[in-house]
Each structure stands twice: as C-alpha cells, then as structure tokens.
Amino acid sequence: SQKIEQNSEALNIQEGKTATLTCNYTNYSPAYLQWYRQDPGRGPVFLLLIRENEKEKRKERLKVTFDTTLKQSLFHITASQPADSATYLCALDNFNKFYFGSGTKLNVKP
Amino acid sequence: DADVTQTPRNRITKTGKRIMLECSQTKGHDRMYWYRQDPGLGLRLIYYSFDVKDINKGEISDGYSVSRQAQAKFSLSLESAIPNQTALYFCATRSEGTYGYTFGSGTRLTVV
Asked: How far apart are CA A71 and CA A39, in angstroms?
C-alpha cells in the first residue's frame, strides 16, 4: 500500500520567512496530491490540489510543487504569519480514496 | 450551520458498549467517508460510501460498521467498543468531479 511520509518534527520559523514542508511517498505516483490545514480540535481544511502533470501550483501565499521522479511534494508558505501556525497534511489519491500523511506542525513566531 | 455536522462532539463510553457516531451534510455531496485520527498515525480510512446503496470497507474497518440512511446521513457504529478505539473520528464528504474533502469538526471518543 502507499506510504506517505511527512516530517513529524515541528517546523519553527520567524514571521515573514518562507516555510517549506515536505511530503514523500513510496510506490506509485498518484494522479493528484492535496494539501490540507488542520487546527487543534478541528477537521482538516482543503488548501490546494496539484495533478501529476503539473510541476507547480500557486494560490495567494501558497505554492505546491510535485516531483514524480523524486516522489515528493513541497508546500511553501511565503511571508509567513503567526496565523499560519497549524498542522499541514498531504493526501494522495488511490482510486477515489485518499491516504493522508500524519502531518507537520508549523509554528510561526512573531 | 456547518456544512458537515458530527454528533456527539465528545463521548466517553465503557468497554463493550455499543456506540453510534452520526454525520450529516448539507453540501449535497454523494460521497461520504469516515476516518479516525491517532497521534503520529495520521488519518486512516474506516469506511466510505459513494451513494446510498454503495458501502465499502477502508483500511481499518474491523470492529466498525456503517449505515448510509440517506444521501446526507452516514453513521458509524462500534458494536462493542474497546479501549484501542479511543481516537478522534472525522466524517468527510466529496462530490464526484471535485477533489477536496469537506470535513466535519470531529468526534473525540474515549473508551474506558
């Protein structure tokens, strides 16, 4: 089955810097990959999707890249703010079912 | 009102008891899912349904059952709860042709 790896250690950065989170997967490359934000005690919220034939996708301060050769997606938040502090999950599809990574916690310090 | 509503928000139950978690949605989505979340393990799929007559097992369905009472309602049952079913449970919905899930706020279940 598909294995998804996200850095379990929290990422601590200073406000205004760019945060970069990593999602690695094993086995097959999915048709598309998604990123979600999760706040404590809340359900994940969908942020961005990138397809296997897309190298990069942007939405406001967010950027996602997808490298099927490296089997890796990178999620960037530019000009980070304390309000961006949350856990970020990546999810890969498998025939209409999604498998989620365990997430990386981002702490943005003012 | 929330798009996806889960009840109860919190529940403590005893080992061996039957418990039902409920999910209702106002999104009009045809696809509904149940996940559980454990620290360090991420979200794991329990059951999913693509319409009222379609129920499928996910990767960790043992000890659980589901019922799709209507397009908008999808409930998860633990027939005989055990302590290792203590977790945060999420219901999610999606529509064919769209990609992102819409999640409920979760049910925190503790089995003692």
From this structure: 27
